[in-house]
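At your convenience, could you comment on the folded chain following this short note?
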Amino acid sequence: MADLKYYDVILKPVVTEKSMNIMADGKYTFLVHPDATKTQIKEAVEKMFDGTKVKSVNTLNIAGKTKRRGMTFGKTAKTKKAVVTLAEGSKEIEIFQGL
């Protein structure tokens, strides 16, 4: 396990059409550190956004794609997404307001 602080776990929010649609159900999508665990993600969300209570965390590991430029091959970086479901009566996350 990586020794990550809570402010290193969440990298940025994911703003796509699908992630905006599931926000109505109290689910928020974040790009997280690849070594972060579900427990670390839950703790980071509750500490970074006051008044939020996390019900569950679902994670997705995304492998890097092979890219080609001429004869040279390379790979993009691997990433990890987390879909965080907030508990009933929890305060909403403000960074997604107005999008």
